[in-house]
TrEMBL record:
Transmembrane segments: 21-46, 66-86, 93-113
Species this protein is from: Ruania alkalisoli
Protein origin, superkingdom: Bacteria
Assigned keywords, A-Z: Membrane, Transmembrane, Transmembrane helix
Listed name of the protein: Integral membrane protein
Length: 144
């Protein structure tokens, strides 16, 4: 028979992860899923004959695949930062905030130049809520 030793509960030197941090990570992962689908779709459009794409035809071999690759890289960076945020890495928090700012800027430009319609408001709000939650809990990254 094995002797049962009473175990003492593990001491927590760090406060528990706030729910807002977990929400940001989940929101980021959901957003990167959509970003990956869009990036993959744009990369796939690069293999379609330009005459089949109508107005996008002239740009289908250069700009569209480049945009798709950029979206896939942004999705990969977002996933990396989301994991870092869950592991309480302050540079990952700043990286996620920076990626959100760049994406929001791109969405606003797309709206201003009428590349996309009013549906671009959804990612801007999504990023805004996630950034606000991260900023609200920034002291958690310092161990406070």
């Amino acid at each position: 028979m094995s002797a049962h030793r009473p175990t003492t509960p593990a001491r927590r030197d760090q406060p528990a992860r706030p729910g807002g941090i977990t929400a940001v990570a989940v929101m980021t992962l959901l957003g990167t899923f959509v970003l990956t689908l869009l990036g993959g779709g744009l990369l796939a459009l690069g293999s379609v004959a330009p005459e089949q794409l109508g107005p996008l035809g002239a740009h289908s071999t250069t700009v569209v695949p480049l945009l798709g690759g950029t979206l896939l890289i942004a999705a990969g960076l977002s996933i990396t930062c989301a994991v870092g945020v869950l592991r309480r890495r302050k540079p990952a928090m700043y990286g996620l905030l920076l990626l959100g700012a760049v994406t929001t800027f791109g969405c606003v430009l797309a709206l201003v130049y009428q590349v996309l319609g009013p549906q671009v408001i959804v990612p801007v709000l999504w990023i805004g809520v996630g950034s606000a939650l991260l900023w609200q809990h920034r002291s958690w990254f310092d161990g406070e």
